[in-house]
Amino acid sequence: MAARLHSAARAMLVLLAIAAGALAPSTVSRADPVVADLSSHLIAITTGFTGANVLVFGATDGEGDIAVIVRGPEREEIVRRKERMAGIWIHGASFRFRRVPSFYAVATTKPIPELAAPQVLQRHQIGLDNLRLDASGREADPAYKEFASSLLRLKQEDQLFSNRTEKVQFLGNQLFRASLSFPANVPVGTYQVEVFLFRNGEVAGAQTVPLVISKIGLGADIYMFAHRDAPIYGLIAVLMALVAGSSAAFLFRKV
């Protein structure tokens, strides 16, 4: 509770500072059409983590529309088609996608198609329909769209790609805010929160704010050990399973 109050108070103070700067006739405000920040730059994943919300807020130097894009660390993803052969399911054709964001979410002041022309939205990859999926040069393959759609569907089922656009709210003519939600299975790493200011269908300003999602505590120690010393971790896991199985068998014999 105290942490939430601290974040809210910090957000309010920064909003007031941004508003004062935006209203002041300075060269800095004219050079930065949009200024943004986060209520927290770190999401700590501990035991029992059930998800988190982060507030993005800021100010503009005048009227316009805002789009907030959240991108997780890029990864390689392989999508395989299952095929039935001789009564069993096996892996068939596959597509390898490069530089796929591990997390993707959008918040805007108005529906995405109303922000700008399609080519502008595609250039900045605003919205799932405009997200570029690099298939290692196989984009011309007739099966590309099918596999790309499957990748988006799987990401949405895992709640890592949002299939809805969150709302950016303006507080007055210049101050804005939006709440960003992250599920319990959110991947760790450094995220990029991009804030775009649109005017007359063009990007009038933009800012990128980093967000770190990291495991801490015992969970982090186990996670690091499992990745740093995978063979030893696997051996310990097998030994623990054997001990647990033997203990259970002994107890059942006693019963």
CATH H-level superfamily title of the largest domain: Macroglobulin (MG2) domain
Side-by-side strand order of the widest sheet: 2-12-11-4-7-8
Helicity level, as a percent range? 25-40%
| N-to-C SSE string, H for helix and E for strand | HHEEEEEEEHHEEEEEHH
Beta fraction: 35-45%
CATH architecture field of the largest domain: Sandwich
How many domain units?
Answer: 2
Count the beta strands: 12
- Low-pLDDT stretches are 1-9, 16-30, 218-227
- CATH class of the largest domain, named Mainly Beta
Largest pleated sheet: 6 strands, mixed
Please, what is the average pLDDT? Answer: 81
CATH topological fold name of the largest domain: Immunoglobulin-like
Number of helices: 6
**Class from secondary-structure proportions:** alpha+beta
What is the 3D shape? globular
Radius of gyration: 23 Å
